[in-house]
Design a protein that fits this description.
Elements lengths: L1 H7 L5 H17 L13 H12 L4 H9 L2 H4 L4 H8 L1 H11 L10 H17 L2 H15 L6 H21 L3 H15 L1 H35 L4 E5 L4 H10 L4 H5 L1 E8 L2 H14 L1 E2 L5 E2 L12 E7 L2 E9 H9 L3 H5 L4 H23 L3 H11 L4 E5 L5 E5 L4 H8 L1 H6 E6 L2 E3 L11 E5 L16 H32 L10 H10 L5 H9 L5 H9 L23 E3 L7 E3 L11 E6 L3 E6 L3 H7 L5 E5 L7 E10 L4 H11 L3 E9 L4 E10 L2 H12 L4 E6 L3
Parallel strand pairs: 2-6, 12-16, 13-15
Antiparallel strand pairs: 1-2, 3-5, 4-5, 5-6, 7-8, 9-10, 9-11, 14-15, 14-16, 17-19, 17-20, 18-19
């Protein structure tokens, strides 16, 4: 503890260091008699965590929480005890970290996802919670040795999947790099040893070239009166391995690049030094990145350029000391510089924005697995930068579409977008965006997202927003459909909802274990309950025991006219792809818990078999339907040159919308063609069939209704 206290005095006053020492004594006393797997006293671990955070120059409350982070979980000390001794901020931090202890790797993905949700909630409350957790994970990774191999691999996998990306997202490269290298070494010990040995050997061979390049750079800066500290930049092991694996490069191809970092005194000097470097060696085209003018998503700022000189490639990063500190410490730099650093505060704003986005995704996700899916998307951003029409810069992951852009501005903009302009030209909503483009979103009242968008968008926010909207839409549609179906069932018995007492409704809700009448209607609309059974329950005498045994048998609505179907009811109503019902066909509805009400033709074999064991209802079509419906035809043809083209032309002339054609050659003289097309009803289908029958090669034609 003495060494920690001495290092803290470099940036904290004596009173705060004394408070940290008190927290240490409390933790030491609470963990007395506890030992780690290695046999060391347990206090070694929280002390090491505090030292890591001290290296980031974290505030005294975070350091106190680091020392105490296990006392609630592993000792008799309570949150209230900590609050009384050290104040509410420290106790809340310790409590937040304690709730995350279960995020130690679980074999079940659901458990991991659920715990990650807890982490996101804790991060939103106080970002310092995750900083303590990152330091905790780093020390655990440093001391994996005593654990058995399988557990080491599990912890390493989670570190690379979750913790290292979070450290990257927070801009804490010092922790991120070590987590990645330790994780890589734990997962692939032999590969790690081989690469480390090769790097060490190559470093000795490169020393002369490195010294020559560095001397030339220093000379050029001196000539122009520029001050800059030039240091060599090491490639870490995991980075080398990933480039070898994903870029399909050999070790020597990757290492044949000499990397340097130049620390300048000011932002203006960064650009002057860049000019000096370009005058010394030729810059490679398309290898220059200005992250000072346009910082990365995590707030990282620097100039990157690749030069060619002395028959080798030279990578140079140029940044100020302040940018260097933020590149290493990320969000942690905020606590050191406070209000003095524009860089740190800008990074804080970006992190706050990301945390808010996490909360939105957490609130909208249907479950923890969906949430972690969205988060993992946002944890690996390969950024592009596009502009709004007013010149604002928006940061998006590579592959993002205009729809992602719309949702990044506001959820309502995304939900209402119908078109876009890229560089003032109308473009497709599915077109991937490129850096430097100006994007304008066109919206329309009443527009709504499509489920097909889920296959187009790349950002977690867009995916979660679309899924949330579709879920709400499904609930609203199921409510309307459920009400319509129930009212139709009541009308068959000459009753309305007004005839049902509130007392009877409450009794039915209790019997069905539901908390509201709206949920009962939604269940009907989603096919979870039969409207005829619910109607019978509602109309039962108050003293009569409600019996819903008929749910298991055949139930037909007494009203043969049934519910009127337009074909555009939405997500809670779907058409069976076994029989492809179209307007004019006699139809029935089969409730399905996943698809809502599924519409079948009455003659459908599948529907007939299902009706023996499931309740169903008679339906009918409204007049003047203009929407298109899918239908499948089976056409037997004589094999002739160009006959498939003639068949397609005949369908087109009859205004049928051809979707697909499948050909099965039976023999040398005959083929069987499966045609899927869209028509507006039976009359339209009759016109199409007439056109097809007019072809001389047609032997037989049937509509497919399984």
């Amino acid at each position: 503890m003495e060494a920690l206290a001495k290092s803290l005095l470099a940036y904290l006053d004596e009173e705060k260091v004394h408070m940290v020492s008190r927290a240490y004594e409390c933790a030491k006393s609470a963990h007395e008699g506890q030992f780690r797997r290695s046999g060391e006293p347990y206090i070694i671990h929280p002390l090491a965590v505090a030292k890591i955070l001290a290296g980031l120059h974290m505030d005294h409350e975070t350091l106190m929480a680091a020392l105490l982070h296990d006392v609630i979980e592993d000792t008799d000390t309570t949150k209230e005890d900590l609050a009384a001794e050290f104040g509410d901020p420290v106790s809340e931090l310790v409590d937040g970290v304690s709730k995350l202890t279960q995020i130690e790797f679980k074999t079940k993905a659901e458990a991991q996802a659920s715990n990650f949700q807890k982490m996101a909630l804790a991060m939103a409350k106080d970002i310092r919670v995750i900083l303590v957790k990152l330091a905790d994970r780093l020390h655990n990774m440093r001391t994996l040795g005593p654990l058995h191999a399988e557990k080491r691999r599990r912890i390493a996998t989670e570190t690379l999947d979750i913790y290292a990306p979070i450290a990257n997202r927070l801009g804490i490269n010092s922790i991120r790099i070590e987590l990645e290298d330790l994780g890589f070494a734990a997962l692939y010990p032999m590969r790690s040893k081989y690469i480390a040995k090769a790097v060490k050997k190559l470093r000795g061979n490169h020393n002369e070239i490195i010294e020559d390049i560095q001397a030339r750079l220093e000379e050029r800066l001196n000539e122009r009166g520029l001050k800059g500290q030039i240091v060599g930049r090491e490639k870490h092991l995991n980075s080398i391995y990933k480039k070898m694996k994903f870029q399909h490069k050999s070790f020597h191809e990757i290492m044949d690049v000499y990397a340097f970092r130049i620390i300048a005194e000011s932002e203006d000097d960064c650009y002057r030094i860049l000019g000096a470097a370009h005058s010394l060696y030729k810059p490679l085209p398309f290898r220059f990145k200005d992250y000072i003018a346009v910082p990365k998503v995590n707030g990282y700022q620097s100039l990157h350029t690749t030069l060619f000189g002395l028959h080798v490639n030279i990578e140079i990063q140029i940044r100020t000391q302040e940018m260097e500190e933020f590149a290493n410490f990320g969000i942690a730099a905020h606590w050191e510089y406070k209000d003095e650093s524009k860089v740190a505060l800008a990074g804080q704003v970006r992190i706050d924005r990301w945390i808010r986005g996490l909360n939105e995704m957490r609130e909208r996700a249907n479950d923890s697995m969906e949430f972690i899916e969205h988060v993992k998307i946002d944890l690996f951003p390969d950024e592009i930068y596009v502009f709004t029409p007013k010149g604002r810069i928006k940061e998006l992951p590579a592959g993002a579409t205009p729809i992602d852009f719309a949702y990044s501005i506001h959820t309502d903009i995304g939900n209402a977008c119908v078109a876009c302009r890229i560089n003032r030209q109308l473009s497709s909503l599915s077109e991937p965006l490129q850096s430097g483009q100006t994007v304008e979103i066109v919206t329309a009242p009443g527009a709504k997202p499509s489920s097909a968008w889920l296959n187009i968008v790349t950002t977690g926010k867009a995916k979660s927003s679309i899924r949330h909207f579709l879920k709400q839409q499904r609930e609203a549609e199921s409510l309307d459909l459920g009400r319509t179906l129930l009212e139709r069932s009541l009308a068959g018995q000459s009753k309305t909802l007004d005839d049902v007492s509130a007392e009877q409704i409450d009794k039915v809700l209790t019997h069905n274990q539901l908390d509201s009448f709206e949920n009962l209607l939604r269940n009907i609309g989603l096919g979870l309950r039969m409207p005829y059974i619910v109607a019978r329950q509602l109309l039962s005498d108050i003293n009569v025991v409600i019996d819903d045994s008929a749910d298991e048998g055949e139930v037909n609505e007494p009203d043969k006219k049934g519910v009127m179907i337009k074909g555009t009811e939405g997500m809670t109503l779907s058409f069976a792809n076994c029989c492809y019902p179209i307007p004019g066909d006699p139809i029935i509805g089969m409730p399905d818990s996943k698809k809502g009400l599924v519409i079948h033709s009455e003659g459908c074999k599948k529907a007939l078999s299902l009706s023996l064991s499931k309740a169903h209802m008679h339906l009918s079509w409204v007049k003047d339907i203009t929407d298109e419906f899918t239908v499948e035809l089976r056409v037997e043809l004589e094999r002739q040159r160009g006959i498939i083209a003639e068949l397609a032309a005949a369908i087109t002339r009859a205004e049928g919308n051809l979707e697909s054609i499948g050909v099965d050659e039976q023999n040398a003289k005959m083929s069987i063609v499966s045609v899927v097309l869209h028509v507006q009803g039976r009359r339209h289908l009759a016109r199409v069939i007439k056109r097809i029958r007019a072809l001389k090669a047609v032997i037989r034609l049937n509509r497919i209704i399984d």
